[in-house]
Amino acid sequence: MDSEKVFLSLGSNIGDKEQNLKEANRRISADSRIRIVKVGTPLVTAALEVVDQPDFLNQIILINTDLDPHELLNVLLEIENAMGRVRTRDKGPRLIDIDILAYKSIKMHEKGLHLPHHSLYTRPFIIDLLSELQESDLVSKFSN
């Protein structure tokens, strides 16, 4: 498989949020099958779905990878687990959350993997973060 353009969303709202994002980036880039192309500026955002929790520090990164979406998801879940993410409640506080926002122009809806990720449409700050990376037209690519 050729190297594909993939957007990831990183978020943290417990512990040292800035350090958590840096460590996630370090671990992502440590995988020889993944190359970080662009790194967005972290943005503080309020929790949207479960609001009784601390604000998030969110960031978008653009990567190139030859991993297929399922392989990439497994790598990202391993990174979350290795960093100490514990899932105590759905959409609850988290040390690190790494989502695949978009993988090329693939549309896929399976248990545990939805491409593009719903946050492209439900989280307004995502558009701001994509604009910084000069990728704000990403949402329109999936509107059909």
Automatic annotation (TrEMBL):
Catalyzes the transfer of pyrophosphate from adenosine triphosphate (ATP) to 6-hydroxymethyl-7,8-dihydropterin, an enzymatic step in folate biosynthesis pathway. Residues 90-101 form the 7,8-dihydro-6-hydroxymethylpterin-pyrophosphokinase domain. InterPro entries: Hppk (IPR000550), Hppk_sf (IPR035907). Keywords: ATP-binding, Folate biosynthesis, Kinase, Nucleotide-binding, Transferase. It comes from Leptospira perolatii. Pathway: Cofactor biosynthesis; tetrahydrofolate biosynthesis; 2-amino-4-hydroxy-6-hydroxymethyl-7,8-dihydropteridine diphosphate from 7,8-dihydroneopterin triphosphate: step 4/4. This is 2-amino-4-hydroxy-6-hydroxymethyldihydropteridine pyrophosphokinase. GO terms for biological process: folic acid biosynthetic process; tetrahydrofolate biosynthetic process. GO terms for molecular function: 2-amino-4-hydroxy-6-hydroxymethyldihydropteridine diphosphokinase activity; ATP binding; kinase activity. PANTHER family: 2-AMINO-4-HYDROXY-6-HYDROXYMETHYLDIHYDROPTERIDINE PYROPHOSPHOKINASE. The keyword NAD does not apply. It is an enzyme of class 2 (transferase). Belongs to the HPPK family. Its EC number is 2.7.6.3. The keyword Kinase applies. NCBIfam families: folK. CDD domains: HPPK.
